[in-house]
Amino acid sequence: MANPIQFVQQVRSEVSKVVWPTRREVALTTFMVFLLATLAAIFFFFVDWLIRTGLTQVLSFFGS
């Protein structure tokens, strides 16, 4: 088992190797996530609306 001091030194060494994203990269990827989530929501809204409308038409045709 490693010494706790060595462990902390190794953790600091590994963390220093991490390449952190820039503020611009974070903002851009956040914007893209919100944009794609909005587009997916709009797409599935219309798919749901089409299925609901089609089923309503079919059921009303056979219902009465």
Distinctive features:
64 residues, mainly alpha, 2 helices, single chain
What features would you describe in this structure?
The protein has a domain at 21-63. The chain contains two helices and no strands. The protein has helices spanning 4-16, 23-63. It is elongated. The N and C termini lie far apart (78 Å). The model has no long low-confidence stretch (mean pLDDT 93).
Structural class: mainly alpha
Backbone CA Rg? 26 Å
Strand content: under 5%
User: What is the H-and-E element order?
Assistant: HH
Report the sheet with the most strands, covering strand number, pairing sense and barrel closure: none
The global form is elongated
- Number of beta strands: 0
- Uncertain segments are none
Oligomeric state as shown: single chain
| Overall pLDDT level | 93
Tell me the distance between the termini: 78 Å
What level of helicity do the residues show? over 70%
Helical element count? 2
In short:
The chain is mainly alpha-helical and 64 residues long. The chain is built from two helices and no strands.
Q: How is the secondary structure organized here?
A:
Layout: H1 4-16, H2 23-63
